[in-house]
Design brief:
Elements: E1 4-11, H1 17-30, E2 35-41, H2 47-53, E3 58-63, H3 71-83, E4 88-91, H4 100-111, E5 116-118, E6 122-125, H5 127-134, H6 143-154, E7 158-161, H7 169-182, E8 187-190, H8 199-208, H9 223-231, E9 234-248, H10 250-267, E10 272-281, E11 284-290, E12 298-300, E13 307-318, H11 322-340, E14 343-352
Parallel strand pairs: 1-4, 1-5, 1-6, 2-3, 2-4, 6-7, 7-8
Antiparallel strand pairs: 9-13, 9-14, 10-11, 10-13, 11-12
């Protein structure tokens, strides 16, 4: 029987997991492998899935619950990819999830051992977030959120320091030294997923690891603290279909939306977990992301042409009450409609706090 492999990449919101999966998939496809991706979110209209689709990669989405709380749904997605002949599956859990070894990795090894190699768990970390965590900067996030962040790192077989091109060599070396010191049982890898740096080494070391001995971290986790950390973040996903009688500058509209959302979160005394936007019109698309109030807005892809219609996807994770995120987002869209002169044909928006984590399995 053919054996396939699955690589689960965890990590906090904004760590760069989706970008890493896309780039890793490209490396493996260049070697002739059949690769697929599984994305995950608490609700529908996920920017990550739309972005992956533009890369002509096979992708499925588990929406409405996390992998751990809907393991049968996760297993079903995996089996669908296996039935389609995929050699390698990359899967990205929700960024606020932890205790993945007990709720995802061991159950996978137990339930799919006949046809699937479960590779060591990788957990990605964004360097500026990591600096805030090590400095115990509670002006950014609470003790509970940092508790969740710490637990994510504790259970990793591989800790992957991403976006190393965004910090100085001195900062990078200090972070790596501290990660090695505080998490001695984990292998620390440095990469820049967006620039493709370090990915081949990461993949090589994952594939060379002892699959049987991996995913064995035993961590003590207080689910009440975990739940409180998840509930600190307001979540908002929206999809907006719009049109205009006149041509619009899509790049200007897109950046203005991201800039205004960021400013509004600051005005409401919140912090960004991540803001992700995706705009598509015709054969063109653009992705915007921001992972902190003190961090820049990054855009992948610029529109070459003005547009008259489009579909906009909005994902916000921030330490702001969901009802405030809802009201703010609707007000921002109203202002943009007036300033850019477009009409909304369809709007689907959901804002909430994640519920108490109730894993299907805990092994």
């Amino acid at each position: 029987m053919k054996r396939s492999k699955i690589m689960v990449i965890g990590g906090f919101l904004g760590a760069g997991k989706t970008t890493a999966m896309v780039e890793l998939a490209g490396i493996m496809e260049s070697k002739g492998m059949e690769v697929s991706l599984i994305t995950n979110d608490q609700t529908g209209h996920l920017v990550d899935t739309k972005y992956v689709q533009t890369k002509d990669l096979a992708v499925s989405e588990l929406a409405g619950s996390c992998f751990c709380c809907n393991f049968p749904g996760f297993k079903e997605k995996i089996e669908s990819h296996l039935n389609n002949g995929k050699d390698f599956i990359l899967a990205e859990p929700v960024g606020s999830c932890t205790d993945l070894v007990s709720t995802i990795m061991r159950p996978l090894k137990n339930k799919k051992s006949e046809d699937l190699d479960v590779l060591p768990l990788s957990v990605m970390a964004e360097p500026k977030r990591l600096i805030d965590y090590f400095n115990e900067d509670y002006t950014v996030f609470s003790k509970e959120v940092y508790y969740l962040f710490r637990k994510q790192l504790e259970e990793a077989d591989f800790i992957v320091l991403n976006k190393t091109d965004s910090i100085s060599s001195q900062e990078k070396n200090l972070l790596i030294e501290r990660l090695i010191r505080e998490y001695p049982k984990s292998k620390v890898i440095e990469v820049s997923a967006l620039k493709g740096i370090g990915l081949v080494q990461w993949l090589s070391e994952i594939l060379a690891a002892d699959f049987e001995k991996s995913n064995s971290r035993e961590i003590d986790i207080d689910y009440k603290t975990y739940a409180k950390a998840e509930a600190e973040m307001g979540w908002l996903n929206a999809q907006v279909v719009f049109h205009s009688e006149d041509f619009l500058n899509a790049n200007e509209l897109f950046f203005k939306l991201g800039e205004t959302i960021k400013a509004d979160i600051s005005k409401n005394s919140g912090e960004i977990g991540h803001v992700k936007l995706f705009l598509e019109s015709g054969n063109e698309s653009s992705k915007l992301s921001c992972v902190g109030l003190r961090q820049s807005i990054d855009i992948i892809g610029q529109f070459k042409n003005a547009i008259k219609d489009g579909c906009l996807t909005i994902n916000i994770r921030a330490s702001v009450a969901p009802e405030i995120l809802r009201e703010s987002t609707l007000n921002i869209l109203e202002d943009l409609k007036l300033n850019f002169g477009f009409a909304v044909d369809d709007l689907d928006l959901e804002a909430f706090r994640p519920g108490y984590p109730t894993p299907t399995y805990h092994m």
